Amino acid sequence: MNDEKEAFGGDKKAGRSIFTNPENALKNWAVPKLPKAIETYHLTMMTIVWSAGNAILAFYAKDNLSVLWLVSLMIVLQYITDLFDGELGRQRNTGLVKWGFYMDHFLDYVFLCSLVFVGYMISPAGLEVWYFALLAILGGFMVNSFLSFGATNKFEIYHYGIGPTEFRAGLILINTFIIIFGTGDFDILLPALVILCFVALVVNTYQIHRKLWKLDMDAKKD
């Protein structure tokens, strides 16, 4: 009987996106240059700062949409610290693998909530239910990833070549659109976005269901 336990796979993301190679090159160049005083957990916890920044900026953005440029800056800063924290831990062998997995992704959810709050604050009245639905659906993608990881020990966050980096880029483009064109069409665009995300979540859930079903059926044959 083999009692050897499978190694924790949470620090290894399965799949790739179109930005994987440039990001790896950036990490290999930049991370060794970070000051010794900066630790992986410092970078991870910075997401709290960026999330708080979004929450504060939301109150100003409702009266001045140009403030969304600063929200986009928060997205860029969160991308940088999120990109570097795990790589810094690996290069310095900090040993914070499971803590990093837990805290990094919990704070990703906190940051997501802060962005939805910004959208809620700048929107015309009467769209509250759509923001509730949007947060539930986007949270569903995260739940899917974690449940799938629990069943397979493979952490998959890329789908059809799209991952967190592309999602952040899309958010910056949305902010830019809002700054230029305003929120007058939100009553059409927001429901359309929610419906699109819901369809994508259904497809994602079905794919995970098929994969896990096959794994169970194959295991019965052994």
Give a structural overview:
- With 222 residues, the protein is mainly alpha-helical.
- The chain has helices at residues 20-30, 40-61, 68-92, 97-122, 128-152, 164-181, 186-221, and strands at 13-14, 155-156.
- It has one domain: Four Helix Bundle (Hemerythrin (Met), subunit A) (Up-down Bundle), CATH 1.20.120.1760.
- A two-stranded parallel ribbon has the order 1-2.
Question: Gist?
Answer:
The chain is mainly alpha-helical and 222 residues long. Helix content is 73%, strand content 2%.
Q: What key phrases describe this protein's structure?
A:
222 residues; mainly alpha; Four Helix Bundle (Hemerythrin (Met), subunit A); two-stranded parallel sheet; 7 helices; 2 strands; globular
Q: Uncertain regions: pLDDT < 50 for 5+ in a row?
A: none
Instruction: Please name the CATH topology.
Output: Four Helix Bundle (Hemerythrin (Met), subunit A)
Helix content: over 70%
Return the CATH class.
Answer: Mainly Alpha
Classify the oligomer: single chain
Within the largest sheet, what's the order of strands? 1-2
Biggest sheet, open or closed, and with what strands and sense?
A: 2 strands, parallel
Helix-strand makeup class: mainly alpha
Question: Mind telling me which CATH architecture this is?
Answer: Up-down Bundle
| Relevant CATH superfamily | CDP-alcohol phosphotransferase transmembrane (TM) domain
SSE map:
Blueprint: E1 13-14, H1 20-30, H2 40-61, H3 68-92, H4 97-122, H5 128-152, E2 155-156, H6 164-181, H7 186-221
Helix pairs in contact: 2-3, 2-4, 3-4, 3-6, 4-5, 5-7
